[in-house]
Design a protein that fits this description.
The protein is α/β, with parallel strands linked by helices and about 400 residues long. It has 14 helices and 13 strands. Helix 7 links the parallel strand 8 and strand 9. The protein folds into two domains: about 130 residues, Aspartate Aminotransferase, domain 1, CATH 3.90.1150.10; about 250 residues, Type I PLP-dependent aspartate aminotransferase-like (Major domain) (Aspartate Aminotransferase, domain 2), CATH 3.40.640. Bound molecules: pyridoxal-5'-phosphate. The site of pyridoxal-5'-phosphate has 14 residues, from helix 3 and strand 6. Belongs to the class-V pyridoxal-phosphate-dependent aminotransferase family. Pfam families: Aminotran_5. GO terms for molecular function: alanine-glyoxylate transaminase activity; L-serine-pyruvate transaminase activity; oxidoreductase activity. It is an enzyme of class 1 (oxidoreductase).
């Protein structure tokens, strides 16, 4: 078989595979968005998104990617002439620091950067100390699951800290929302963001911002000029209240997201989360059985990463998986805190990926690792994966 004839399996931690029902919905004729028909679909989607986000607040659907949505929350919710605490132990946490670096001169923001080791959870004590010492912090940013390091942080604990202060907690839930436990209202998350191409089972193109009461109040009270037009969340909130969006939406994606949310919620969000967790746990056990080392001390349930063993070349390994097996996984990323490009690889457990996809991935990884001279008994990973999954 040639590579193009292989069944393609996407196990990258974004974009992720899209179910056939969603693809069929995306193919429907385009309707105009300033219509009752669109508004009805949008209203249904908004209600479903609230269930996935576990919030009673509005969840805005913004054309763009996860970065668009998070940047919008960052620029609109920060107070001018204040401080922000930005936590980073991976590429995405670092990105939110970069965004505030850009806006700091427009809004006179001072950044308190809490950088911690890649592969470790955010240091809650250090965040508490920074909050205690700086009463003028207006925003805290944190990645719930930093996909670059396959690591989860204790957002529940950090939200409890933020709730005692005037600081709003902005959570990058791009690979936690819909994948593992993330209780926006119960925990007290002020703004929660995700993107369509991760656990939401949609192609790339939409970013979502859930807003809690304190965040809505902050938006209401804005009196300064904000350096944003399209990303001015006040416009999006006002339109959302009328089941509408301020600018032309990606109509097909809105429809598709409604169907994807129905699938996510079909057996309840808890069931979806439990399945993702099973895949993650079984994958970690399988990698360890194969003699590979996990990259995280605090593993995320949506993505698993391991270091390459000595002698295995990243490009060759992933090309082998792709060309010989139709399996797509991710390599590493490099940032300020670590240079993991070429050093690690990652597989996703979120969204539309199941036991059989992951089992096939382990079988293929064993073949390609052996092809590069790594001493591995064929079947070790597959057996461990299957045993842990069924345990
Ligand atoms: C994918 C991802 C992003 C970036 O999202 P884009 O949609 O590429 O802008 C941000 N944060 C995390 C944790 C991600 O996994």
């Amino acid at each position: 078989m040639t590579a193009t004839e292989l069944k393609q399996r996407l196990l990258t931690p974004g974009p992720t595979a899209v179910p056939a029902e969603v693809l069929a919905e995306l193919a429907k004729p385009i309707i105009h968005h300033r219509t009752k028909e669109f508004q009805a679909i949008f209203a249904e989607l908004s209600a479903l998104l609230q269930k996935v986000f576990k919030t009673e607040g509005p969840v805005l659907s913004i054309a763009g990617s996860g970065t668009t949505a998070f940047e919008a929350a960052q620029v609109c919710l920060v107070k001018p002439n204040s401080k922000v605490i930005t936590c980073a132990g991976g590429k995405f946490g670092e990105r939110w620091q970069d965004v505030y670096d850009v806006y700091s001169k427009f809004l006179n923001i001072e950044q308190i950067k809490i950088n911690f080791d890649w592969g470790k959870a955010a240091p809650v004590d250090q965040i508490k100390k920074a909050l205690d010492e700086n009463p003028d912090v207006s925003v805290i940013t944190i990645c719930h699951s930093d996909t670059s390091t396959a690591t989860a942080s204790d957002v529940k604990a950090i939200a409890a800290l933020a709730q005692k202060t005037d600081a709003l907690l902005l959570v990058d839930g791009i690979t936690s929302v819909g994948a593992f436990e993330c209780e926006m209202d119960n925990w007290g998350i002020d703004a929660l963001v995700t993107g369509s191409q991760k656990a939401m089972m949609l192609p790339p193109g939409l970013g979502y911002v859930g807003l809690g009461k304190r965040a809505l109040k902050r938006l209401d009270e804005i009196e300064h000029d904000i350096p944003a037009y399209n990303l001015d969340l006040r416009k999006w909130v006002a339109s959302h209240a009328k089941n509408d969006v301020p600018f032309t939406p990606p109509v097909a994606l809105i429809r598709g997201q409604k169907v994807a949310c129905e699938l996510i919620l079909k057996d309840g969000l808890d069931a979806k989360i439990a399945e993702t967790k099973k895949l993650a746990k079984a994958s970690r056990e399988a990698f360890v059985a194969m003699g590979l080392e996990l990259i995280s001390d605090s593993p995320s349930e949506s993505v698993t990463g391991v270091y390459y063993p000595e002698g295995v070349v990243d490009g060759k390994f992933r090309a082998g998986l792709r060309d010989n097996h139709g399996i797509h996984i991710a390599g590493g990323q490099s940032g300020r805190g670590a240079k993991w490009k070429g050093k690690i690889f990652r597989i996703s457990h979120m969204g539309y990926v199941d036991f059989a996809d992951t089992l096939a991935c382990f079988a293929a990884m064993e073949v390609e690792l052996a092809a590069q001279g790594f001493a591995i008994e064929q079947g070790v990973g597959v057996t461990a994966f299957e045993a842990a999954y069924n345990a």
